[in-house]
Prior knowledge:
Elements: E1 2-6, E2 9-11, E3 17-24, E4 32-38, E5 45-50, E6 57-59, E7 67-72, E8 77-82, E9 91-98, E10 114-118
Parallel strand pairs: 2-10
Antiparallel strand pairs: 1-3, 3-8, 4-5, 4-9, 5-6, 7-8, 9-10
Amino acid sequence: VQLMESGGGMVQPGGSLRLSCAASGFTFSIRAMTWIRQAPGKGPEWVSSIDNTGSLSYYAHSVEGRFTISRDNAENTLNLQMNNLKPEDTALYYCARTLTLTGVPPRSLWGQGTQVTVSS
Length: 120
């Protein structure tokens, strides 16, 4: 199983980034997926989840209305469009397989992460 995140970087407040997660080694189309983030010195925070078909999506209150999760089952790819970024969004962002549509899954199900830094 491999989850490879990309698309992170540094952006000014109010800017946008699009994260992607390339999945392999498992049947992507039958698994719900999630994004988690972890800021320095803090515990992991659940960000957003999507069901296996892409029909249902859920967001943490802190990102609702600014972030959009999506998936392409033909390409085995999970995405996170992040708009109106704030300094408090700065964190390492991970994609993960999940058995539930909210909450942080076990660390063994996460990818390697991509850094997002929001700073002026």
